[in-house]
Specification:
Length: about 250
Amino acid sequence: MIRKTLLLALFTSFLEIANGQVIISLLLGDNLNTGKIEFGLDGGVNLSSQTGTTGGKNLTTFNLGFYFDIKLRDSSWMIHTGVIVKSRMGVGNLPVYSLADSNLDNSFAGGEVDRKLDYFNVPVMIKYKFKNNFFVETGPQFGLFYNAHDEFTNEVQGNDLSYKVETKKHYHVLDAGWTTGIGYRLSRGNGINLGVRYYLGFVDVAADDSGSAVKNRSLYFAVGIPIGVKKARERTAKKEAEQNSANP
């Protein structure tokens, strides 16, 4: 009991810290960006699904986080990492199931269920940028699960009804898989990154291992906005000028 309480407290604290990271990132972006490391915000739309479910369609949600592009010796090669702080997996438009309450069952008969699982996702990918500013990236992605619920919705006599069922206990804490993507860098390679990524989960995230394997899938339409790149380049240029003047 004490161990579960400590784990819950740890996850809650981590969630509060992570939610503040986006704001802190905006404030400190100029300092986080250097000549070798590019820092920025990463977000967009993802269409997620799961194996092992009957029926359903892609669940459309938004994601938001921050990224680091760490340049290697050859500047065309980078390590792309960061944390997708707001990252939801799951599946939408599932058929309703019994809630063990006749009033609720009657109210949501003919409705639908959206299954939503919340993660902190950390990609660690190798990224290569071509001279025409297109880039490709691939590598593992690791997820830390922290919350889940099934959301029942229905329309009855013109009124929208909704009901949430907490399902956190039904899932494992960790997820892992592989992400591959392609994108383009605007403004002659100095601006916003536009990309498409696909995540293929390898882990059965369902705590009940007796049924079909439940593995996450997600298609990301991502936008990466570098923070403080211009100032970082100005600092680098100034440092080089000072070194050149000191060593004529």
